[in-house]
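Hi all, posting the design record for the shared folder.

TITLE: backbone redesign
STEP: 1 of 1
STRUCTURE INPUT:
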């Protein structure tokens, strides 16, 4: 086995396998950072409650299955809608009063919302997680030649890519996206054309929150559904957003997928650094390009 700078290089199949698993994690990073980028890019709100909405999406799917018999496929639609509606209510009641102020106020408010949601579920369900079954249609595994990977993880990658591409297309290439961007630049002018800007803003926040909830439903069969699942992930996702560029849709998707693969590669080459490699890259990017890889000054 070859060595480079004292670090033993693993066999190629092991490298490819870890990078593929890293792509699964990167799919969650991309989907979560996409919602953050939508909310910050269009509303200038640093949504620190994003991890809580991700957790609520997973819990909504688990509780709907346990108490209502709602299966995974229906939960993929209903859980994001329900959590997105909750986001709209919170935006109308709380966040709307902070627009135009320093973004720090929005960060503190959403951080408080996150603590309340996490504390309430911890009180009711405890810190131990619960499992969510993989749907029958996605049972089994696929032989990629260099590894055998569960079919569900390939579904996560494909579903996340489709959602990210559709979201990017809607915001960057449609009239609706142009209207959203115009409303953030000059709300009074857009409202003069008869467009309900407050409703548009609420819907945008709800859509960003729904993306987090969708990621939660996708993750439920992969990890334990617990009240702490969001807090352990949101810091990494914020780092991904900073690297891609705050508010950049494309930057969030590309950096999320890329960093997931880099993290997976680090686990097989130098495992001790796998938990900090994202933050090391963030520090280097901020030194070289403070606005992020795809951000604008």
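Okay, here is what came back for every position:
SEQUENCE:
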């Amino acid at each position: 086995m070859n060595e480079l700078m004292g670090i033993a290089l693993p066999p190629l199949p092991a490298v490819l396998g870890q990078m593929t698993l890293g792509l699964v994690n990167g799919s969650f990073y991309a989907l979560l950072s996409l919602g953050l980028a939508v909310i910050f890019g269009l509303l200038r709100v640093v949504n620190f409650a994003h991890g809580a909405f991700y957790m609520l999406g997973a819990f909504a799917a688990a509780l709907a299955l346990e108490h209502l018999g709602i299966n995974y496929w229906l939960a993929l639609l209903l859980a994001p809608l329900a959590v997105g509606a909750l986001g709209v209510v919170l935006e109308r009641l709380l966040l709307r009063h902070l627009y135009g102020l320093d973004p720090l106020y929005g960060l503190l408010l959403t951080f408080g919302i996150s603590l309340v949601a996490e504390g309430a579920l911890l009180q009711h369900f405890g810190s131990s997680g619960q499992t969510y079954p993989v749907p029958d249609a996605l049972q089994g595994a696929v032989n990629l030649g260099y590894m055998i990977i569960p079919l569900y993880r390939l579904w996560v990658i494909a579903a996340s890519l489709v959602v990210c591409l559709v979201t990017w297309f809607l915001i960057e290439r449609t009239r609706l996206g142009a209207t959203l961007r115009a409303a953030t630049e000059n709300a009074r002018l857009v409202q003069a054309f008869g467009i309900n800007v407050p409703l548009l803003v609420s819907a945008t926040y709800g859509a960003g929150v729904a993306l987090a909830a969708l990621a939660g439903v996708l993750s439920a069969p992969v990890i334990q559904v617990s009240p702490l699942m969001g807090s352990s992930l949101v810091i990494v996702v914020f780092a991904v957003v900073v690297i891609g560029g705050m508010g950049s849709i494309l930057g969030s998707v590309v950096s999320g997928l890329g960093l997931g693969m880099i993290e997976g590669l680090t686990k097989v080459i130098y495992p001790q650094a796998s938990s900090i490699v994202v933050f090391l890259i963030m520090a280097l990017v901020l030194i070289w390009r403070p606005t992020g890889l795809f951000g604008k000054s």
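COMMENT: The mean pLDDT is 89.
Let me know if anyone wants the other runs.
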